[in-house]
Model the fold of this input.
Amino acid sequence: MSVRIKQFAAIVALLAVPALVLAAAAPDKAEKVAERMLSLDKAIQQGAAQIDKTLASLNALAQPEGDLTAKYKDFSKNVDTLDKMSQKAKSNAEAAAKDRDAYIAQWKASQDKIQNPELKAASEARRGELQPKIEAIKTSLGSARETFTPFMQDLKDLRTFLANQLNPGGIAAAQSLITKCNESGERVKSDLSQGSTAVKDLAASIAPGGAAKK
Done:
């Protein structure tokens, strides 16, 4: 599951604030960024759960016996829900990414003013510790986004196809794509799981005291 939102003007304004004010505001800012990251993690986990629910309804529909109309409606509803949740998760990821980048930029600008060599070295080490965690988020959620897009399209294609061939013959013709959707869904969930771990790791690293509020 990706990452983006409105803070360049805020960054400029923050960088114009005297260093002492920046230092005083930093813990509060860090806590808000960490909380935003945890909101993103919540959206990631909800998305993964909805993928499971959507695939379960698809696999139920793949069994030609029973009330196909009812099973199709359930599958179609889950596809719509997943689509809407993915858009919300995308928005959350963009907001979290921009908040995160704004905070890091502000923090770097304030820490660059440190003159004491030992504290400056410690600050550089801290920055080096955070960067791999940020990259882990970008990598995992970027991969999830790339895998999710064709996965979502395949689900929509199945829904459209079966709407006009909701019978054992149509289901048999769709079996190959149904199998592909199950495989793609598992890959997306794996990427989302890694993204969730990375997001929580960064949130804990940024939050004052090392623990963000859940």
